C-alpha cells in the first residue's frame, strides 16, 4: 500500500488531483513567499501528539457537558419508559450536534487566532499558516477543519501522506492550502 502511494506521489498524479480540488475548494493555489529552507515543517509525530492532547481536552469538556445534559434528562424521566427513552435519544442527537459545533469552533477559532494554534499545538510548539506563512482566516480554518473528514473517510491515509509530502502536509492541508510549521517565536 505504501509503495502504491509513493508511486503515485512521485508521478505527480496525486498532486495534480489535489491542485484541482484546491482550486475548487479554496481558490487558486498561492506559493509561499519564504524559501523552503527557512521554514521548519511540523512532522507527523508532533502533529499526532498535539492531536492527542486536543482530543483529551475536548473529551473532558464534552464529558462534563454530557453529564450536565444527562443529569437534566434523568431528572425529568427515568429512561425506562418510552417517554424517557425518547428524551434520552433527543438529548443524544442534540449533544452530537453540539459536539461537532464545539470541535469546529475550537479548531477554527484557535487556528485563526493570533497564536495560530490549538492548545495541543502550542504544547508541541507548532502552528498553522497559509502557504505564504500568514495567519489563517476563520473561513480557511473552517475549511481545513471540515476537510479533515476526507482523511478519516479514506482510513487515515490523508494523515499518513504527511510523511511523503515535501512540506509535510496532510490531505486537508494540501486541499486547503495550509501548512503546519514549527513555531520559532
From TrEMBL:
<keyword id="KW-0812">Transmembrane</keyword>
<protein>
    <submittedName>
        <fullName>RDD family protein</fullName>
    </submittedName>
</protein>
<dbReference type="InterPro" id="IPR051791">
    <property type="entry name" value="Pra-immunoreactive"/>
</dbReference>
<feature type="domain" description="RDD">
    <location>
        <begin position="41"/>
        <end position="177"/>
    </location>
</feature>
<dbReference type="InterPro" id="IPR010432">
    <property type="entry name" value="RDD"/>
</dbReference>
<feature type="transmembrane region" description="Helical">
    <location>
        <begin position="89"/>
        <end position="109"/>
    </location>
</feature>
<keyword id="KW-0472">Membrane</keyword>
<keyword id="KW-1003">Cell membrane</keyword>
<dbReference type="Pfam" id="PF06271">
    <property type="entry name" value="RDD"/>
</dbReference>
<feature type="transmembrane region" description="Helical">
    <location>
        <begin position="56"/>
        <end position="77"/>
    </location>
</feature>
<dbReference type="GO" id="GO:0005886">
    <property type="term" value="C:plasma membrane"/>
</dbReference>
<keyword id="KW-1133">Transmembrane helix</keyword>
<feature type="transmembrane region" description="Helical">
    <location>
        <begin position="145"/>
        <end position="164"/>
    </location>
</feature>
